[in-house]
Amino acid sequence: MQKSILITGGAGFIGSHVVRHFVHKYPEYRIIVLDKLTYAGNLANLGDMEGKANYCFEKTDIADETAVSEIFAKHQVDAVLHLAAESHVDRSITHPLEFIQTNVIGTANLLNAARKLWTSGDHLFYQISTDEVYGSLGAEGKFTERTPYDPRSPYSASKASADHFVRAYGHTYGLPVVLSNCSNNYGPFQFPEKLIPLMINNIIQEKPLPVYGDGSNVRDWLWVGDHVKAIDLIFHQGKNGETYNIGGDNELSNLRLLHILCDKMDQKLDKSRGTARKLITFIKDRPGHDKRYAIDAGKLKTELGWRPETDFENGIEQTIDWYLSNREWLENIISGEYMHYYQQQYHT
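Above: the chain sequence. Below: its structure as C-alpha cells.
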C-alpha cells in the first residue's frame, strides 16, 4: 500500500525543495502538498511537479481545524513533514497574532488530526523548526539540542510554542514525533523578504541595500539542498522523540555577507568593483535583534552521518546565478502586497 506523506508549506522556499526531493527520490510515496498560498507560497515553485503520479496539491490553511481533519481523512495521511509557518521576524513584530494563529494553532490542528487518525501502524510527525527558538549567543559557543529555549521575537516565540506542543503530544498521547532546528537557509526560490534574495534583487534594481544597525549580527548559513538531505535522513532514521540541530558551519556577519554579495554581483553584472557597495544603507536596528546564532550539528553528524556538502562560496554562486537566470520569477512575485510590505519594513 502506497504511503501518504503530507508536506505542509510545500509551496514555500524550503518546502518546495523538500517536495521535489521526495517526489523524485521516493516514487513509492504519495506526496500531498498542503499550502495556504500566502504571499510567500508560490505554486510556480512546484511547476515541474504537475502531472507527477505521486504528487497532489491541496490549498488549505492549517489554522482551519475542519479543513485539516478533512485532508487527513481524505488522503489517509501516514506521516507529516511540517514546514508551514509564518517565518519572517520583521513581520512578526508588526503582526504577532498572525504568527500565533498559523504557527501555534495551526500546528495544534495538525497534531490533533494525526492523533485521531493514527490509532495503529507506522507513523511520524516531523516538526521542522528554527535555531531562533534558542535565543541569542555571545561571541563564543554554539546551540546544541540541550540549549534551553529563550525566544526573543514573536516569530521565535510562536515556533518555540509549536515545538513544545509537538513534544507534549509525543509524551502525553504517545504520538511518534521528531524535531529539527536549522540555521538560516539560502538558495533558489527564496522569497525576497529574506536577506540574500532581497539584496540580490536590490542590487539588480540599483536600490538601497538596507542593513540593520551596524551589520555586525552573525548568522550561520545553510545551503537548502544540504538541509533537504538532513530532513530526509531524520525522517527515515531519526529516533522517536529526538531533536536534531542542522547547521551549515558558515558563520558570517550580515555586513560581511553583504560585501561578498556586492562584489560577486558586480562581477556578474559587469560593473566596476565597489559599485554595489555604494548602495549599502544603514538603518535603525529592529527591536530585540539577536546578536549571533551558531549551530552545533554534532549529534546529526555522529548519529546519522550527515555532513553539509556545499561550501558557502559554491552555494552563493549557485544562488546568485539562479536569481539572475530567473528574473521573470522574481518580477512576478514582487508586486502589490509585497511592495507595500517592503516599504513598511525597510523605509530608511
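The chain has a mean pLDDT of 93.
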